[in-house]
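Dear support,

Our group has been running a series of protein-ligand predictions, and this particular one with zinc ion is the one our PI (initials K.S.) wants archived with full inputs and outputs. We had some confusion internally about which version of the output was final, so please treat the block below as the authoritative record. The input we submitted was:
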Amino acid sequence: MLQAQATLVLILLGPPGAGKGTQAGILAKTLQIPHISTGDLLRLNVKGETSLGKEAQGYMNGGKLVPDDLILDMLFDRVGAPDCEKGYILDGFPRTLAQAEAYHKRLGNDVKLAALNLELSDDVIVERLEKRFVCSGCSAPYHLITSPPQKEGSCDRCNSPLVKRTDDDEKVVRKRLAVYHSQTAPLITYYSKGQSFKGVSCNRPINDILEEILDYLQEVAR
Ligand SMILES: [Zn+2]
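Confirmed final output from the archive:
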């Protein structure tokens, strides 16, 4: 069957903690297109011992970063699958300007591209993560606003004390955000020059954010 419409490539940019993963999951379900994380792809290829996975493992064994070209090979291998014909959502990639340029060079212009920048201030991200706890016994996640425990400080399931995750520590979070901003600022400039770029404020309920994104995608699809 011929595809009537060009493949939709939805790129989600935004700082860690802005809710990219959550939004990507909801969008994938709503639009019925796969949510692709290059981190997961790498793990799958390594675990499955594909030829690309073995090559990647070689770099990892040597303590080296897996080169962008190899990640792109895995990505294009994945998006060539039939379930990506209608489109796909990229979350966490590209992360740098070099990755974006290499990706678009290979992708070409035969797609409908939409790049969304999920915006949330560093202070709000830190504040949200401050309210996140995990059970020291069974690892169940809690959030003081969205999913508080019934009894303060202890797990509903196993009664163990709730603790903060070490990577939610303010210092760690601020450092991660600083790295994100320095790597991604040029990326945002790159995409904002194109026609299909939109900043989306994420300091509001998830459904409002989703609605704005879906409205925008309708425009892009025209
Ligand atoms: Zn527990």
